[in-house]
User: Fold these one by one.
Assistant:
Number 1:
Amino acid sequence: MTHSVLITGGTGMIGRTLIPLLRSLGWRIHLLTRSSVQIEGTQTFLWNPETGQFPVESLEGITHIIHLAGAGIADKKWTTTYKQILIRSRIQPARLIHQILQTYPHQVNTFISASAVGYYGDSDEKILTEESPSGKGFLALCCRAWEQEAETFKNLGLNVKRIRIGLVLSREGGLLPVMEKALRLYSGFPLGTGKQWMPWIHIDDLCRLFVHALTKDTLTGACNACATIPVSQKTFLQTLGKKIQRPVWPIRIPSMLVHALLGERSELILMSSNASCQKVLSSGLTFTYASLEEALNNLYSTQNL
């Protein structure tokens, strides 16, 4: 039997790596997109969560759904309007899918939703498991709303899995190119205390985790998606600086200044999250890139430049 999956948000950074991996494993892939786009090895369907447009034919033969859709959390200033967009862009698509599954016959048995370690808020030195409570701040609020919407799929009898993603390392987007650019411009400074825990994960390991979640029925509920060995922000900068041969200056930018420059969005930089991946490891998945050095060696290898 051919495995089949419907993906929202599949044209983003995660989807661009996940889709080729799924194709290589023989999955049949349907994508829900807002604009006409053709991606090799997939069948695309136009939809619009805001207007309720949904192509029911996209569910034909589908057994799994991965919900990645959502506006970029770091793309714009966190105005009141944009914060509403960030939450709505995650909730509306899931809500529409839920309504359609209630209405039309289907074979879907698993709903996997992206989330983020921002769920825990700023947690200082605490080791965070999936049982740890949600924290304070907008990121925590956004993640709670995201996950609460995903949980509604349980009343349809689906196996619901919530992947709390850490800081994804990729040359194609996210945090790494931003930090690399700063270091190459000789402006690499720890921000805040520099002691904040950064729960990073290599893009390839994250996509392997999504595949693992698709095929491992016993892995359910919330799952922290972060590497085995966490590092502090200062250590992250120093390790990256060594890799690209740029210095990290022994001067840190005070938290107050970071907040003055970025406003509430400074949460993304100043938050400390020492999230544990033990649940995922205990389910049988091993990470290819357990240490930051291994991850950066791969991302900056000749074949990836």
Number 2:
Amino acid sequence: MKQNADMLSALRRIVGQQHFLTDPESLRHYGCDRCDLFEPSPVAVVRPGTTDEVRAIVLLANEHRQALVPSGGRTGLSGGATASRGEVVVSLERMKRILDCSAPDGTIRCQAGVVTAQLQEQASRMGLYYPVDYAATGASQIGGNIATNAGGNRVIRYGMTRNWVAALQVVSGDGQVLELGRGLIKDNSGYNLMDLFIGSEGTLGFITEATMRLAPAPAEATVMVLGLDRLEYLLNVLGVFRAAVTLNAFEFFTESALKRVVERHRLQRPFADRCPVYALIEFEGDSERDIEAALAAYEQTRASGWVREGTISQSREQARSLWRLRDDISDTLAQWTPYKNDLSVPISAVPDFLADIEAYVAEHYPGFEVLSYGHIGDGNVHLNILKPEGMATEAFKAHCDQASEGIFELLKRYRGSISAEHGVGLLKKPYLRYTRSEAETALMRTIRKVLDPHGIMNPGKIFD
């Protein structure tokens, strides 16, 4: 016990009394992300303000074999930022400065605690654009985005976070400060170690600074919401619109999801008809020619019997309102304690895959409601199993863990991934074998051992 007390006292000296937290409210607040299926139990929370302080924390943790859990905006949905085994949570929220901006290079260098929306606003002031965007941009932090390789709504056009990282400063699990990448467009001087940390979920070290690439400012976007009678029509509609306009996003959601969002947030329905499936389409360009091309595509899909009804934004405000019908789904479903599966399959397989899953759950778990939505334009499906009223969370999780085996067997047939953009964390760890071979997992363990020899960095996440 004295060794533990000594270690905690040393942590307090590193960050200062104000940034060393052990009260129950702070431990719970910082001890988990938005996956509330695991109980947080950290021993302390520290909030360093510099890379030097982060390094000092890591060196001390190695000395005492104390496990650390990185904490950003805690918007993750897989338990990747949950401290459930007496770890010390290291929150980077104080490290929130934008350090350098370069319009000629099209980059912003910032600390890991910068919130995504802050980066987007700075890019806009430079006449540029940071395109990785999703519902949690007002809370998620750049370090966490990189650690989970966040995707979001516009992957079909702009790709994942990985595509926008130019350089990183990291503190590895053994306490080295590494400058990875030089912000160059071309650099073929050996292995790309920076890429290891992107999507590593804090298991290799702490990301403390990042240089992010920016895109040219886009033209004004227009949003359409279309109602369809059958899920399989989505791919036909995607093909028509992809040929007609430059797509930024192609999303889908169901009537079950829309009904809940509209009721919870008192939003207006896109049109009077209630359709089983909806597509949300965002395309770049607000010129008369762009609008005419989109409307022609709409008429073609209606004439083909794929689309029953639709609406198109007439202003930026209307576009935002239509996006809320999709973006507010995750927040709306939180009251049902959903068991979330963030899956990806080839785009062409999405309708058949979803039909197989719904049939499987209906047969084996008839009391559960399955609600799906997501980024059909890049093959990413968010599958939510809603907790029945009155069922205890532990019992519900046990049922869903069992159901996941069958779902992932289906996924394996489609050569899909158990995690499209939310990471593995604690929630998906038991199912990594459906995506990664034994040889791949062994290599990942070897890499982790090199960078984190004592296993202090976010232990228990991705694999044991």
Number 3:
Amino acid sequence: MDTIIDSDLRRTYRISSFLVDERTRFIVQHKETFEPSISMSVYEQYLSLKRGSHNSVKDILDKLTYFFTWADDAKVDIETMLLNGLAPTPQQVRTFVYWLGERVSYEGRQANRIAPTTFNRIIEACSAMFTWFIMQYSVFNGAGNQHQVNREKVVESVKGLFKKNRKKVRQSKFADDLSEEEIATIEAYLKPSNRTDVDKDTAMRDYLVWRLAIEFGLRIGEILALRLKDCPYGKKNDISIVRIEERGRDYVDPRGANRPQPKTLSRDLGFLFANSPLPRLISDYISDNRCQYVIRAGKKKTLPITDHTFLIVNHWRKDGRPLSGSGMQRIAEKISRNTGIKFHWHIARHAFFNRTYQAVASNPDYKDGMMDLVYWGGWADEKSLQLYVNRARRERATKVLMFWQKGLTWDALK
């Protein structure tokens, strides 16, 4: 087993994914022995039933591998502790918090460091994990109500232990954005006619993904999950976002357990811009670029993709497979390197909603604008708009109010 060095983020546990009845499931294993964690398998089952998104389950399990790595290093039998519903001691919590705190960075992103906000999410995940196991497996003296009271006292004590060790963090309350100049720079770089660093099929795909992100504010999982029948064709003049559970029992994704899964609600979205190139771009990409290369009789031939119906494909190996999430990440990294802009795909979603929110908020005649925007984003309620509300207010404070005061003087401060 590797020794865990101070401020080193290497963990002794890993997460593997697999499919069960077309659902992505996870197993937590020790990296050296490959031995699975029984307690985490039990907890994963609970999380999979409770949460709709497998990405959320994986994120929670990933946070918990920090505690398991610490326990491994500190020779704490975490399996026995959890499966017997035992609470961690105050000393164990303090030691873990100190160990984790040594890996925190307050100076932005650094290698082998975690952000304070991530630190707090790890603490919260550990608290929730112990709470669940205590409620499920703990045994106390007494019967009936007394047993329940004793158990709840232990749970509250554990929650308090973890809560008081959270770091005070001033979280960002604004949705980050791209400036008009940055959007224009990315647009110019990705235009297929300007690309010289990739082949024409890849250039068309990258530009199509960019326009779907910036024109519709779609999440990457939503874009990667798009199928041909979700795109405009014939009299269908919109794009359909469909959750996996609504695809039916025959839904198959060759990406297996790593398949993308839209987190938002299903919805149909029309084109906002009259001059949008997207309808033509989608049509041209499907007919001219969405293909695979095969060798027949010693000659390379271009053939249509027939083994799946996903829109966005991987052009690197020319095998026609649907593009993966890591493939999308590599495209974002290339955009950053070649434009000098700190780019990630989700910032395109923010750029879209920052602008559409301001447009809706500034139109007093559009009474249903906010609810329409909630539908467009695939959210369940208006709470998810708060980041965009706050940014719009900040923009008004820094621009509109300054404009209002232009030419005014404050005699007392002369």
